[in-house]
Amino acid sequence: MPEHEPQPAVKYPWQQSVLDAFMEVRPESLPAKINAAERAISVRLCDPNPPDAEESTALHDALRSLRVLLPEARGTGRGSGEKREIA
């Protein structure tokens, strides 16, 4: 039986959609995956039960990471100088 690489631990439900975006290998599917991750983060940020400090840090880190991935999904590349705000 082939060994499988262990999947990264997902501590919060919204993290799965962020992980899915970073694991996407098809460029044409990447924008949809990023949008799904942004929506999941947005839903969590709008939740009436605020995140604790650890989850809040994880949410902000995920948004920063998606900003890095976003130019690649839009086909602009990192060197274009174009910046977009997420959330």
Q: Outline of this structure?
A:
The chain has 87 residues and is mainly alpha-helical. It has helices at 15-23, 30-45, 53-74.
Q: Pairing-aware structural class of the strands and helices?
A: mainly alpha
What's the number of extended β-strand segments? 0
Euclidean distance between termini CA atoms: 43 Å
Share in β-strands: under 5%
Give the topology string: H per helix, E per strand.
Answer: HHH
Helix content: 40-55%
Radius of gyration (CA) equals 14 Å
From the spread of the alpha carbons, the general shape counts as globular
Largest sheet: none
What can you tell me about this protein's structure?
This protein has 87 residues and is an all-alpha fold. It has a domain at 15-74. It has helices at residues 15-23, 30-45, 53-74. The chain is globular, with a radius of gyration of 14 Å. The protein starts with 14 loop residues before the first helix and ends in a 13-residue tail after the last helix. The model is unreliable at 76-83 (pLDDT under 50).
Give me some keywords for this one.
mainly alpha, 54% helix, 87 residues, 3 helices
Secondary structure layout:
Layout lengths: L14 H9 L6 H16 L7 H22 L13
